[in-house]
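#lab-general

N.A. 3:47 PM
ok so I finally got the sequence cleaned up, no stray characters, all 139 residues accounted for. can someone with queue access submit it? mine expired

B.Y. 3:52 PM
send it over

N.A. 3:53 PM
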Amino acid sequence: MKIPEIVEMYMDSFCHHDIDAFFDTFAPDGTYSDPGTDEPISGQAIKDYLGGLLAAYPDAIFETVALHVITENLVVWRWIMYGINTGTFAGRPPTGRHVTLPGCDFIEVVDSKIQRVEGYHDRLTLLQQRGLLPAPPQK
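B.Y. 4:20 PM
back already:
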């Protein structure tokens, strides 16, 4: 199966920090969620959330690990984010620490627009890398 063009636009705009183009990939009632959102968000909240993430990690690089076409309407994008936390995010001050965060987005497409994204990453590891929680003891 072929990757829907809208998914390629989603990934490209995300990787290039183009918030408006990213938002344009969503259907008017499309939603986004990940471990940093309390519930699925939509509309302006999607732009605000991505803007906050990119302000916290302005040098963020997203490396594609793999793309899995599950059905004609569902694609999984596996990625790794690399960046230095130089801005406030989710009410927490910047730490100046580097993070390497693997994750994935389950992207559902309906009528050539993104209807829903469910993102997953290891929030505990992120907080540990930022120095906000103690790292596990070394063996």
